[in-house]
C-alpha cells in the first residue's frame, strides 16, 4: 500500500475543507482572463510554469495566472521542482512517498520516473519529516489537482507527479541537472512546475537593499531601525530588483539569471529550481528543431506588502509560462 504524504499545511496555509478551498481557488482562476493575446487559456504547449508557493491568501491570486495557462491535455506526469526550506541540500532529493494528499484527493507519484531521476542524478531521498514540513512542493498540489479535474474525466486519468527538491547548486551543477531533465522536456507527456517566490525583503530575511536611484546596480543596505529613506519608496527598489531577475528569466539565458542574482543578491528562494529549468531549456534550444521553444513569459507580478519603512517586510510573487 502506497504511503501518503499528508497535506501538512491544510488548515493553516490554505483552507482544509474541500468546498471552501475549491471556492477560493476558483475565484482566483476566474479573475484571470480567458485568453491572452487572442489565445484561449490554457495556452497550447505551455508545459512549464513558474508559480509561487506562499499561503494562498498571499500568493494564490498570482499563482492562478500560471495555473490557468498550464496545458495538461497530453500530460501523463507532472515534475515539480521546489527549493529546500527545511534543511541544507546539495544536488537534488527524491520523495519517500507513494502519493501526495490534498483536501480534494490524492495525487499519485510516478515511481518509475522517480527511480530514473534518482539514478541519473544520484539523488538521495528527502528525510521524511523534512519532506512533510516542506511547503514548496505541497503548495502546488491543490491547484494542480483542481486543474486536473478540469482537464480529465476522472482521477484515474490524472497525470502522476514527480516531486523533486533542488538544493544549493552552482551554475555548472545546474547545467548537469538540466541536462538530465532534457529528455523529459522533449516528451510532450511531461509537464513541469517550478516553485519559487521572488524577493524576500526585510530584517527577518536579513535583506534590506535600497536604491535612491531605482537602479539594481546602485544598492545600499538599510537597517530595520532606520527611518524612512528620503528618496523613492522602498517598494520601488524591490520592484526594480525583481524586474532585473524577471528580465533575466525572460531572456532565456541561464548565465544572465545567475549574474543578476550575483549583482543584487535577490533572495529568490527558488533560484536553483529556476536555474535548473533555465539551463535545461537553454540546452533544448540548441537543437535546431527546438530553437524557438521554451522561453519564459512573465504573466503576473505581485507582492505581499508595499514596503515603506525599513521595519516592514514583503515577499514577491511571479507567475510565468513557457511553451514547448
From TrEMBL:
Q: Where is the signal peptide?
A: none
InterPro entries attached to this UniProt entry:
MEMO1_fam
Q: Record's Pfam families?
A: Memo
The record's annotation in NCBIfam families points to: AmmeMemoSam_B (TIGR04336)
Matching entries from PANTHER family are given as:
PROTEIN MEMO1
Family assignment from sequence similarity: Belongs to the MEMO1 family.
| The name this protein goes by in its record | Uncharacterized protein
Origin species, per record, is Fusarium pseudoanthophilum
Amino acid at each position: 500500500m502506497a504511503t501518503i504524504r499528508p497535506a501538512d499545511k491544510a488548515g493553516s496555509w490554505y483552507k482544509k475543507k474541500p468546498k471552501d478551498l475549491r471556492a477560493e481557488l476558483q475565484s482566483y482562476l476566474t479573475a484571470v482572463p480567458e485568453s491572452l493575446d487572442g489565445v484561449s487559456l490554457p495556452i497550447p504547449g505551455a508545459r512549464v510554469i513558474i508559480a509561487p508557493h506562499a499561503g494562498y491568501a498571499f500568493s494564490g491570486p498570482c499563482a492562478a495566472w500560471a495555473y490557468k495557462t498550464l496545458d495538461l491535455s497530453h500530460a501523463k506526469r507532472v515534475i515539480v521542482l521546489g527549493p529546500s526550506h527545511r534543511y541544507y541540500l546539495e544536488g537534488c532529493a527524491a520523495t519517500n512517498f507513494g502519493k501526495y494528499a490534498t483536501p480534494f484527493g490524492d495525487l499519485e507519484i510516478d515511481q518509475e520516473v522517480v527511480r530514473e531521476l534518482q539514478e541519473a542524478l544520484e539523488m538521495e531521498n528527502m528525510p521524511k519529516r523534512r519532506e512533510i514540513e516542506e511547503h514548496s512542493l505541497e503548495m502546488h498540489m491543490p491547484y494542480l489537482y483542481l486543474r486536473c479535474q478540469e482537464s480529465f474525466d476522472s482521477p484515474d486519468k490524472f497525470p502522476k507527479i514527480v516531486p523533486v527538491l533542488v538544493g544549493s547548486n552552482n551554475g555548472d551543477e545546474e547545467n548537469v541537472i538540466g541536462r538530465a531533465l532534457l529528455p523529459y522536456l522533449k516528451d510532450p507527456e511531461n509537464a513541469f512546475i517550478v516553485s519559487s517566490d521572488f524577493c524576500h525583503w526585510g530584517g527577518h530575511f536579513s535583506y534590506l537593499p535600497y536604491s535612491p536611484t531605482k537602479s539594481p546596480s546602485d544598492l545600499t543596505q538599510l537597517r530595520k531601525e532606520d527611518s524612512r529613506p528620503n528618496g523613492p519608496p522602498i517598494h520601488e527598489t524591490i520592484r526594480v530588483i525583481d524586474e532585473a531577475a524577471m528580465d533575466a528569466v525572460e531572456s532565456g539565458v541561464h548565465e544572465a539569471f545567475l549574474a543578476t542574482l550575483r549583482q543584487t543578491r535577490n533572495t529568490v528562494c527558488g533560484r536553483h529550481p529556476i536555474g535548473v529549468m533555465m539551463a535545461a531549456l537553454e540546452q533544448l534550444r540548441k537543437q535546431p528543431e527546438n530553437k524557438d521553444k521554451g522561453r519564459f513569459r512573465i504573466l503576473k507580478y505581485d507582492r505581499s506588502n508595499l514596503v515603506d519603512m525599513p521595519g516592514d517586510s514583503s515577499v514577491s510573487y511571479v507567475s510565468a509560462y513557457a511553451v514547448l
